Amino acid sequence: MATAAPAATTELLGTAVRAQSNLWADAWRRLRRNRLALAGSLYLLLVVAVALIAVVWTPYRMSAVGLVAPYEGPSLAHPLGGDTLGRDVLSRLMVGAQISLVVGVGTQLLVLLLGVPIGLAAGYFRGWFDGAVSFLINVFYGIPDLLIALIMVFLLGPSLTNIIIAIVATRWMDMTRLVRGQALSLREREFVEAARAGGAKPAKILFRHILPNALGPIIVQATFGIPAAILFEAFLSFLGVGIQEPTPSWGSMAAQGIVAIRISPHIVLAPAIALSLTLMAFNFMGDGLRDALDPRQKR
Amino acid sequence: MLSRGTLIYIGQRTVLIAFTVLAVSSIVFLGVHRLPGDALFSERMHGNEYAARLHYYHLDEPLIVQYRDFMLGLVRGDLGESLVNKGVKISPLVARELTVSAEVGAFALLFTIGVGMLFGVVAAIRQNSWLDYLLTTTSVIGYSMPNFVIASFLLLLFAVWLGNVTNGAYYFAIGWTGTYGNIGEIWLPAFALGFPYASIVARLTRASMLEVIRQDYIRTARAKGVREALVVIRHALRNSLIPVITILGPLVIGIITGGVVIENIFGIPGLGKEFAQSILNRDYNIVIGVFTMYAAMIGVANLGVDLLYVVIDPRIRY
Fold first, then answer.
1. CB A120, CB A179: distance < 8 Å
2. Shortest CB distance from B140 goes to which of A258, A261, A283?
3. What's the predicted TM-score (pTM) here?
4. What is the total count of domains within chain A?
5. Do the Cβ atoms of A238 and B148 come closer than 8 Å?
6. pLDDT tens, A107-126?
7. Residue A77 forms contact with B (CB below 8 Å)
8. Taking Cα atoms as reference points, which of B249, B252, B239 lies closest to residue B314?
9. B261 → closest Cβ in A142, A235, A275
């Protein structure tokens, strides 16, 4: 594919020399050209805005019962209708956006805080620490997510914080394994050796030399981790062991609506569509970021 | 194929599975005793009725004694008795439900692999065509949608909308008539269960097909005049199978855990439905039994997948 170097510069120089490029500028340029990723980001901005608005204002109180006739369909006063208890679905959907974002981003932040240092240390220092970490990763991979999360929720009790902790317990391995692998391969590179020869302390080598070079894959992994966490929360809430009433979660709203699917499908459709679009947007964005941050794809 | 090494490997894994099952059921056993709620208590009881019930289930004994009895029972394959339905033995109950879940799961797995690989191959050999874009986008949608969302869309479409359109002459009947479902009852839940994973399989197949199809031996095969269909199936597809096989383990586990949701939506009397039901009923003995079964099922499924690697890829030996 043709390079996007400004035509004027090319003419001035008389040769097809490209402006000096760096990874992040290139990535941004490639990301902007990916229409699906762009659409995804715009939609996510909308979700974030809705979630922020819901902090201070919702059309009705999200837990107020009997605002609408139960099961009533959409109307002007209640654009998304009422749920099985006559609560306003739109208000609950808005608060649900908050819950989903907090769970998704919160989980991923904790995973980063946990996975990056552990992975870096394990990959760089090797030895018994690496052995222990690798063993733990394998143990956790051996037990299915649902069992880990359910046991955690059983032991800690269902609350927003505990659900985030439970999801982190099922997700930390992905990031740790990725960072460990990156550290493992980067530690053999010349620039790390140069830093070592220059007398840099391990902490400086890890965070100033190895981490910046592993940032691309980490960002991509984190972007894919957010929808995975949101999905898992919805799954837990759908089963009734996640976010508890009256706080709405898209998962528990869908669970409530699915029993009434025959008479008032809007109760299940509203959270289901919101959830799918959000997950899709994150996945498209992750795809876009992965392509954009891949230096082999020069276009 | 079943060399001595493989047999030793199977033995080791079986021991490991047994330990996992014991560990999981112990954690659940101890965890469940911390939960609030009581299936045995009722306000309508008089006198020592409650104490008698507790005594019947040995719940009045110290926890450590209960735990010892539970472990002794577990080793004999006895998971105790239901707290809600007095006299119902749990072991045969969950064993039967396990086979129902396995039936749905097997259909879902067949669907996942079949449709996923077909989509992936078609998208790869028609790369960058509208068909490719359509299938690739569908697969992103597929793995972005939680299975309960897919299930609700399918129910709306086939159980509600189709019934309305044909005036109730033809629609998908939700539910299960016998212990095991017939094909008419099973295809929709299997589809909902398998679709997200089919999308992942399709993506993987497409990526690895694209890699393989540019190899020299494919060009050689074409140059020899081998028919295109044969090139794709015998030369390209076989070699692009490996990445697909590597996700078979997570895929099987995903289908097993996804079944929890799907069985509840479609009213399938399997392990997943029992799971949600028993938590709701506070029937903690069944909760422990279901967890134990799940741990065993997942362990065995993992072992099965690992053994399958040996069959498919002759380079792998244990």
1. yes
2. A283
3. 0.82
4. 1
5. yes
6. 999 999 999 999 999 999 98
7. no
8. B239
9. A235
A275 in a structural domain? yes
Task: Calculate the alpha carbon distances from A67 to A88, A243, A268, B83, B154 in Å.
Answer: 7, 23, 18, 39, 30
Report CA-CA distances (Å) from A20 to A17, A23, A26, A88.
9, 10, 10, 55
Among residues B263, B268, B108, which one has the least CA distance to residue B201?
Answer: B108
Taking CB atoms and an 8 Å cutoff, what residues of chain B touch A227?
144
Contacts B35 to A, Cβ<8 Å: 154
Domain range enclosing A18: 4-292
Judged by DSSP in three states, B140 sits in helix
| Global ipTM | 0.76
Note whether residue B277 is domain-resident. Answer: yes
Contact B152 A269 (CB under 8 A): yes
C-alpha distances out from residue A203 to A124, A191, A199, B13, B258, Å: 10, 15, 12, 40, 42
| Chain mean position to CA B138 | 23
Looking at beta carbons, which residues of chain A come within 8 Å of B256?
144
Considering only CB atoms, A239 lies closest to which of B31, B140, B260, namely B260
| pLDDT (0 to 100) of residue A117 | 94
Query: Would residue B80 count as lying in a domain?
Result: no
Q: Which amino acid is at B302?
A: N
Contact list, A150 vs chain B (CB under 8 Å): 291
Per-residue pLDDT tens over the stretch A87-106: 999 999 999 999 999 999 99
Cα separation of the two ends of chain A:
6
A93 inside domain: yes
Which amino acid belongs to residue B79?
L
Q: How far is B282 from chain A (nearest CA, A)?
A: 13
Q: Pick left, alpha or beta for residue B282 (phi over 0 → left; psi -120 to 50 → alpha; otherwise beta).
A: left
- Please give the angle made by the CA atoms of B289, B290 and B294, to the nearest 5 degrees: 120
B251: CATH: 1.10.3720.10
Question: Is B203 strand, coil or helix?
Answer: helix
